[in-house]
Amino acid sequence: MKIARKFICFLLIFLSACTTPAVMLSSIPTTTAAPQAQPIISIPTQDPMSLSTPTVLVFPTPIPAAETQISPPEATYVEMQNRTSVLTPTPIPISPRLPAEKWQQWPVIPKLTARTYAIYRQGLAQGIAPHSFAKVGDCQFVNAAFFGIYDKPGGYAFPQDYEYLQQTVDWFFGFFNRESQAVRSGFNVASVLTPLQADPKICLTGETPIACEFRLIRPGIALISMETGFEGRTAAVYEKYMRRIIEYSISQGAVPILATKADNFEGDHSINLTTANLAVEYDIPLWNFWRAVQPLPDHGMDISRPDNFHISVEAWNVRSFTGLQVLDAIWRRVFKSR
Q: How is the chain split into domains, by residue range?
């Protein structure tokens, strides 16, 4: 019995990370005028872990490099008012991508892959909900820091030439600020695959957090960002669990979208390289968040903390905006109506 208890305690420590103290970012201004040519969103001014009701700030997001931009929409996509439309993938020419070793040069917004269409077709047959997406992540994926604002009409704005993103918000409305069972402060690649980490009030006995979330919403897309490290985590350990997450998502008919991370906690970028290798192997999209934050001060890292892990408020802003562009790229070019 003592051995079992010690094992459980060790497992819980192994599966928990990403502790986030409540820190006020007093150096951030309360408002900033946004140049008309730049996209803006509203984001929290405080650490997301310290917020019960987020206070929001509006300021500009740097526009990614030209090759990462999504072309303005055509007039032939699904009419937003008809959320019961039956969707089928419309193949478009697939552009080859650079090898994984050159992941730093990959575009922020992923180019679509042939596998994307195949997974979506499979998902339709399995009964996915085309208007839903799942978030699978750690403390930097919680609603206060990522995406939550898009479920709050009037809390954000898109400037000229980016208004089309509102149609993506409308399409997925209700899922941006949803409390995902596969997102929690302290989660890592192992946590979402462990029944001990599932909420017993919502999830079934023996169900993992990711299985619980997928059962509840039947997502057509899964945004996956597991940045939190833990003692003994190597690129090989990360790869082992990430493979299981990817394969589970595909088996459920949800297009997995992997994300690179802003930090280089491991010192050699081996986690991002592993993520790129997995994206190539499984032929799935990769959202190059690392590249998106390179123009920011300190490359998007919060240097006020000694952990070399947490990203800055500016980086939260970039994450939400580029994440929305990723969703837009997938549903607009794959989830087309007949």
A: 100-337
